[in-house]
Amino acid sequence: MSAASRAKRFNGDAEVTVFERGSVISYGACGLPYVLGGAVDDWDSLIARTPEQMRGRGISVRLRHEVTGVDAGARTITVHDRDKGQTTQEPYDKLLIATGVSAIRPDWAQTELAGVHVLRTIPDGQAIEKSMRGAKRVCIVGGGYIGLELAENLCRQGLTVTMVERGPEIAGRTLDHPYQVQVRQEVERHSVEVRCNTNVTGLTGKGGRVTGVETDGGIIRADVVIVAVGVKPNVELLRAAGARLGKTGAASVNVRQETSVEGIYAAGDNCESIHRVTRRKVHIPLGLTANRMGRIAGVNMAGGDAKFPGVVGTGIFKVFGLGVARTGLTQTEAEGLGLDAVSVDVKSTDHAGYYADAQPIDVRLTAEKGTGRLLGAQLICPNHQSVKRVDVIAAHLHGRGKADDLFQMDLAYAPPFSGVWDVLLVAADKLMREV
Amino acid sequence: MSAASRAKRFNGDAEVTVFERGSVISYGACGLPYVLGGAVDDWDSLIARTPEQMRGRGISVRLRHEVTGVDAGARTITVHDRDKGQTTQEPYDKLLIATGVSAIRPDWAQTELAGVHVLRTIPDGQAIEKSMRGAKRVCIVGGGYIGLELAENLCRQGLTVTMVERGPEIAGRTLDHPYQVQVRQEVERHSVEVRCNTNVTGLTGKGGRVTGVETDGGIIRADVVIVAVGVKPNVELLRAAGARLGKTGAASVNVRQETSVEGIYAAGDNCESIHRVTRRKVHIPLGLTANRMGRIAGVNMAGGDAKFPGVVGTGIFKVFGLGVARTGLTQTEAEGLGLDAVSVDVKSTDHAGYYADAQPIDVRLTAEKGTGRLLGAQLICPNHQSVKRVDVIAAHLHGRGKADDLFQMDLAYAPPFSGVWDVLLVAADKLMREV
Q1: Which one of A388, A390, A418, A423 makes the best mutation probe of the B interface by having the most chain B beta carbons within 10 Å?
Q2: B19 touches B66 (CB < 8 A)
Q3: How high is the ipTM of this complex?
Q4: Where in this chain does the record put each Pyridine nucleotide-disulphide oxidoreductase dimerisation domain (chains A, B) (predicted)?
Q5: pLDDT class for B240, splitting at 50, 70, 90?
């Protein structure tokens, strides 16, 4: 919908039509766990723009219309009207494939049993909400962002939560080990049972409803099972159109969001992007990136010239009483890429140490040895908002700055906001001596 | 003390002696209002390093020793021991003059009456605390950072506060008019009476104690009067040494914190610094700047080579339920410097709009027309911590970045932290279309 809006705004004469398989457009997917937990009032609150609003802008929106094929030569798509059961061919001049990602359902999760869910869409969320009624035990499979946010929000509703993670720690792909441990401890402190190094092998059920999760560590009883093991890009249409996919499995696009097929664009969670720190193609499907790509595609499709700037790998989440943020590369990631990286860890307080509500904040900064180039940061703080200062590091990574440049910055100080030396400066100071 | 610590750390053989006129070293002056209000437990909490700790590092600290003269030719200083009443000459190889600033006391405030105060040091704070006992009405003269922080903290203690400001609005020197108005409204909402365009002409007293403030708008009754009309650099010793002062009246130093006199350094609130946005000399005495200058002077005095990077004019304060931040230049300041500046105003929310604790946040971004160079930002939000994102703009100003570079940034998003488009991105987007 970002693309549609931008295209129409850029060129008022453009005829813009949106085909949506489901019944909902333009919703805040990142808010889904919070409706379940009560921090967001209702599902409708997540709707950013209704079909009526879009139509008011002169954009045609066809709900429950699934695009099932693309003929790039003839510049037509095949559209299936799910209500009328009719299939038609529709012409296009420029086509955007913004099919996003789907939640992965491993073989064991391909089940008819009630009470087994993924969380990707509003209907998914509504189904979980319904399943939760009368339920006592929830098993969340997967310890990434979504699993962690779900754990918090379902605990808030009084459910007993077990989290199963295949890897040795939760939050494994986004943080270095000491930070993973802090996240696990926080989750455990809130009575979530965390089972790492555990593989799910199947489900148990009774009367058509799930009763447990079979693992290589035994059966975990559960009235509700949520599968949060990751996402995969929806690339069927891209394949049908003959568009190239990248090594990550997502759509390969240039900075204008053009695919390898003339006239066909891709934008959003189904696309790769360029990582500005590593200069490699990555697939990191997140809200801001998707929105930004959409806007850029829209402008270009309408005759403009906009370019996607790349990402620096910024991510942030709240889990119970902790804010956790990262940007750039972790030490583990940097080493995995063959970089000669060094990290420093700093413990400080988010506000002046003597100020009433000061909380401990941990920062890890990572830089390249020799060059001193900053590579990344990780932050953890019980005052969750305080880790939003990760944005300062993200800004610095955009400019490919060094640790000592970071240390030079005139950051804001007053006791209710930080120490005289903001923890980022403290960490940069320490890092300067290591690179 | 930053200089002393750094010098000793850089060169363990250096003989470092600190002469302090008063009885306290190394305290967090910015925390003074918060001890009065109760957000900081006690005065001792503000002490960062004690003389004993410094001595433990091999630094000699002589309290109640006032340096009264400098002979730059002979490389000696005249030191007056205030307890013994003795005056001696002490030799130096390198001399740092870190005499800071004093609170300005206009003629009418040069009084013998009890209950009239400034707030600059811990003894000042302790005197105010004593005056507050049994007091009901406080008059704060001056509507800058300190006056505003005092207003909040004294209100918290149940005192009735009147604020007198000579100019047309409070927070006048740091913010553009719409932001000044928001600050005044917030202060008034908390029952502080604000009298702008009001000049103080004298004081009234009875039995040796102040009873009111005489103004050109009538007498304001007060049991306690706090004068917070600004500070002036303490430059007597610099003058005595023959060191050059800048146009601002503060010490003129180079990036190594060297004065115009060989072997004599200056650092801290008594110094000018370079503003990276305007490339002009400014005198903006703030905690981080002072600390940073001290470290740099210390390294250089001990034989190293460190350079002060300049400031970008970042400031932040909390007043009642508002966080207020600024960096770079305001529209008013930019125009005053003859720049062709344009500002945009954006209202958004600090967290995702649908998230439970989202608060409105206002951002003004200012850029140079034609070049698109970002000049500054102002932020206001009832969730005071949310304005700390001013640091992202400060980081961007360090790199002399443009509005469109800011818009490109991969900033952190999850509903408890921001909207998908962080308000800074929203503002940059709007600004791009104006420059």
Answers
A1: A388
A2: yes
A3: 0.91
A4: 318-420
A5: very high
